[in-house]
Amino acid sequence: MANHSQLGFQDASSPIMEELVQFHDHAMMVALAICSLVLYLLTLVLTEKLSSNTVDAQAIELVWTILPAAVLITLALPSLRILYMMDEINEPDLTLKAIGHQWYWTYEYTDFKDLTFDSYMIPTTDLPLGHFRLLEVDHRVIVPTHSTVRVIVTADDVLHSWAVPSLGVKTDAIPGRLNQTSFLASRPGVFYGQCSEICGANHSFMPIVVESVPLANFENWSSLLSS
């Protein structure tokens, strides 16, 4: 999760988030190069003596037409690649349905017979020592590590958004519509998120907690809850 005064992204915990962080760094380097070039040209204009000589401008016009196009291509190609990767869901190992309510989440493990629970934020007065205020829930989403998880997202009342930054996941929950996304947790851990769509007075109080565990632990947990 994010730390105080943190400027960058959270540590990537899925392949998609790793790609997003790399693309961000790539875009920042392109922006830095553009800013450096503009600053150099501005300095040149301010410090050099002006000349009234008329020169042929075809060459410079060709440069300032081709150069921006090349910059856009260097940004568009990796961006389109990541978009297609995020949209592609091939043979998921587990399907999870997340239903947004005012102001809690309901989760259904559709691969199991009766594995459904509601997830509420733990009030500050009941929060165990060492847990995070406004982020901890009474029932976490448990998923197996290194397994592709498909998440079907919808809402029961108003617009919500199911978002876990460190997993690179953010999908709108719309009443009457099923949206889907997927993620693969590349390491065991606990990953925190929140509803990212203003959904009412208690919008800030419906966090999301995803816990990634080894497959054997997940099987034990699922057998206990479904029995």
Automatic annotation (TrEMBL):
Keywords: Copper, Electron transport, Magnesium, Membrane, Metal-binding, Mitochondrion, Mitochondrion inner membrane, Respiratory chain, Translocase, Transmembrane, Transmembrane helix, Transport. Residues 91-224 form the Cytochrome oxidase subunit II copper A binding domain. One of its GO terms (molecular function) is copper ion binding. Gene3D superfamilies: 1.10.287.90, Cupredoxins - blue copper proteins (2.60.40.420). The keyword RNA-binding does not apply. The chain crosses the membrane at residues 27-47, 59-84. Its main location: mitochondrion. It is found in: Mitochondrion inner membrane. InterPro entries: CcO_II, CcO_II-like_C, CcO_II_C, Copper_CuA, Cupredoxin, Cyt_c_oxidase_su2, Cyt_c_oxidase_su2_TM_dom, Cyt_c_oxidase_su2_TM_sf. This is Cytochrome c oxidase subunit 2. The lineage of its organism: Eukaryota, Metazoa, Chordata, Craniata, Vertebrata. The gene is cox2.
